[in-house]
Amino acid sequence: MHAIDSLIDQKIIRKTKIIQLLSKSMHSRLPSKYHHHCWLIDITDNCALIAVDSAEVATALRYQQHELLKQINEEFSKRLNTPLRRIKIKVIAPEAEPLSSTESASAGSTNTQLARTYCRQILDFLADSSADIRSD
């Protein structure tokens, strides 16, 4: 039996590690109330793609994007092939309302559906962002 990381392309593993480090760096520069509401999901063509779960967080990030770019480029200049020039932010909001205590019996299936919805939205965002960035 092989270790799981031996089955994954090393470029993907390196990129994932960089994204994870960039996410931690981004979170360290944001107020703690935003840490669980924004996710750096990809870096492509000199652009950081960030998903958030509310307009409030998107607005906060947009106001700080120039400072974030500057600090990330300074901190990660050796790991990134080229400096980041843009941050693209997408609000990916849940389609389901939070569960009440009486609905907890079906929480497992509802959470699974919600997770699938988030994944679809993120994949759509990545596909749209790739097309937008290439057309710029």
Task: Explain the overall architecture.
With 136 residues, the chain is α+β, with helices and mostly antiparallel strands. The chain has a single domain, classed as GMP Synthetase, Chain A, domain 3 (2-Layer Sandwich), CATH 3.30.300.180. It has three helices and three strands; from the N terminus they run αββαβα. The longest helix is centred in the C-terminal third of the chain and has 29 residues, at 107-135.
The N- to C-terminal Cα distance equals 45 Å
Q: Give a short account of the largest sheet.
A: 3 strands, mixed
User: Which class in CATH terms?
Assistant: Alpha Beta
What is the overall shape? globular
State the helicity in percent bands. Answer: 40-55%
Give the CATH H-level superfamily: DnaA, N-terminal domain
- Give helix and strand order, one letter per element, not per position: HEEHEH
How many domains would you count in the coordinates?
1
Secondary structure category = alpha+beta
**Major sheet: order of its strands?**
1-2-3
Q: Mind telling me which CATH architecture this is? A: 2-Layer Sandwich
Q: Give the uncertain stretches in residue-range form.
A: none
Give the radius of gyration.
Answer: 17 Å
**How would you classify the quaternary structure?**
single chain
